[in-house]
Amino acid sequence: MPIKVLPPDLAAKIAAGEVVERPASVVKELVENSIDAGSSQITVEIKSGGVEQVKVVDDGQGIPTEEVAIAFQRHATSKIDSQEQLDAIATLGFRGEALPSIAAVSRTVITTRQPLDQGGFRLELLWGEPVSSGSQGCPTGTAVEVSDLFGNLPARRKFLRSSSAETSRIQELVSRYALVFPGIRFQLMVDGRVSFTSPGNGLPREAMLAVYGPQAATAMLEVHGEDSETGYQVDGFAGAPSLTRANRTYMTFFVNRRWVQSRMLSFAVEEAYMGLLQVKRYPLTALNISIPYDEVDVNSHPSKREVRFREESRVFSTVQRAVRAVLVADSPVPSMNAPAGAPPPDSDYPRAMAPSFFPRSAFGGARTGAGMPDYQGALPGGPADAAAPRQPAPPLKVVGQLKLTYIVAEGPAGMFLVDQHAAHERVLFDRISQKTSEQELQSQPLLEPVPVELSPAQGDTLQANRESLENYGFQFEPFGDGSYLLRAVPAIFGEGDPAKSLLDVLDMTAFEGLVRQKEDVTAASIACHGAIRAGKPLTQPEMVALLEQLEATPNPHTCPHGRPTMVHFSSNHMEREFGRR
Fold first, then answer.
1. Over the range 380-402, which residues count as b (16 or more CB within 10 Å of their CB) and which as e?
2. Residue among 385, 382, 424 at smallest CA distance from 522
3. Residue 145: beta bridge partners?
4. CATH homologous superfamily of domain 367-569?
């Protein structure tokens, strides 16, 4: 095939794919333009997850009438005009790609008016080509309406997720910008109803209240830190160690008020919380790193989600020290009397089992061993294990417990270390899957209904998985905007905080749902939350009973998330290490 120049319309579609991945990409670009325009109020309206319609209305400075058509030409921008400005970008937008990329894959209508103009101007485009234009009465500011997204690219549209999933991404984006721009009033309308509103009064904690609710907002600690040598500053909020979530979704970072994703910044925050959080628990944060514009590259990612720092190690240390300082000042010093790795005495994990922690079987079965619920018998694996061949676990003889986390056992071919949490997850997952298919899963009614506040994303996860959650033992009902009354939880949870149990399962379900089959994600999340934790002491009979149950499962070598349940140290290897062969 000879080399040739692509037709303009095809080139435009390819270029648009780098900027417009989904409806949330459209919202992001338009909202950032509105922020750059000096808006004090931004309203986002979406229909059908943004596929049918996205409309962003602001009260910013507007666009001059003679420049509206130019704005839809590729690489047309008012943000920069020199190499020096490119090396120190101070605005959220700067490439001049957003509007032409959006217009290339949609029907776009823009109406705009500047404060001193007598009237406004309207321009309509279809697949990037102007259809009509002319004067239009309108308030000061700009309104951009994007409809039939990817209508000329059906292959792209079929890769979008469900309307609720796309809506969740947009809700997350709008709420994140409300956190870092508390002086702007953001409003999100979903299918005709108001989904989110921020106060826009310039008070960061009140913006936090609008996004996360009163319980989380009151537990957030203010962070202010600065590196005197570099001038780097860190401002925002970090949650108290008692305020945790099951994944990193709630760790939010901005660089010069640009929302970014950064593994380095996540690691810096996790280092700051070292020793204050339980294993697999993550904090809530909303941090803005202020840094000289010429020391950060915001042009390293097609959709500007990632940035690069000239002095990455200094940024890391600035964030780590700032967060650690407020935690040390405002949080209790962790007790050093507890065994290494054990949860603190006021652990908020529900006690999955008793005595010690084994209660009567959540499914009404008889007891075996020293209080272990009866999970014996042939237990089918979950849907994710349906195709896996049966690989029985070797018969193991319990020797003891290591670091209150691993069961040390002797097998026919050497020594085995069994992760007690992963092993119990596997046992519970298989039992839950079996009891659900047999409609025998038990629910534990609460003495009094417990109110639970959900974020918009958590509310969408609950609605998307409502039937599954109810089948597994949760009972809840709406209780006002963004709140629910929790009336029952799966009996497997035993004692503990029922509201936190539901929040954890929703967070784990949202995360695991990206990589697992929908039919078993809730079961895996419930099994993880209900399983015994690292740091829990086990008696000899309890360890024996757990290993016996693990041996009876169809896939004893991994937990439902794919982590290994055991590690083998062969006799030959140990003999070589000790010079016996």
1. ebbebbeeeeeeebeebebeebe
2. 382
3. 55, 109
4. MutL, C-terminal domain, regulatory subdomain (3.30.1370.100)
223 within 8 A of 200, measured Cβ to Cβ: no
Euclidean distance between CA atoms 52 and 306, whole angstroms? 28
The CATH classification number of 8-197 equals 3.30.565.10
Distance, CA of 121 to CA of 106 (rounded, Å): 20
Comparing CA positions, the residue from 546, 548, 560, 557 lying closest to residue 390 is 557
pLDDT band at 175 (very low <50, low <70, confident <90, very high): very high
DSSP string, 30-42: HHHHHHHTT-SEE
Mean of the per-residue pLDDT values of the chain: 80
Which span out of 162-166, 231-235, 241-245 was modeled with the highest average pLDDT? 231-235
Per DSSP (E only), the strands in 374-442 are: 397-402, 406-411, 414-419
**Residue 359: helix, strand or coil by DSSP?**
coil
Give the count of beta carbons closer than 10 Å to the beta carbon of residue 562.
11
Grade residue 304 by pLDDT with cuts at 50, 70 and 90: low
Pairwise CA distance, residues 420 & 56, whole Å: 51
* Fold topology of 219-330: Ribosomal Protein S5; domain 2 (3.30.230)
For the chain, give the number of residues.
Answer: 581
Q: What is the pLDDT of residues 413-461, one digit of tens each?
A: 788 899 999 899 888 888 887 766 666 667 889 989 999 999 888 888 8
**Which H/E stretch holds residue 567?**
strand 566-570
Please name the residues in contact with 301: beta carbons below 8 A apart, sequence gap of 6 or more: 307
Cα separation values, 227 from 158, 316, 319, 414, Å = 48, 11, 9, 53
Domains of the chain, by residue range, sit at 8-197, 219-330, 367-569
Indicate the pTM of the whole model: 0.64
In order of 194, 485, 529, the CA distances from 454 in angstroms are 16, 11, 18
Q: Tens digits of per-residue pLDDT, 242-299?
A: 888 888 989 999 999 989 988 999 999 998 887 677 778 899 999 999 998 888 877 6
Buried b (16+ CB within 10 A) or exposed e, 251-262: bbbbbbebbbeb
Radius of gyration of the chain (CA): 28
Sheet holding 443-453, edge to edge: 443-453, 483-490, 475-478
pLDDT for residue 5 is more than 80: no
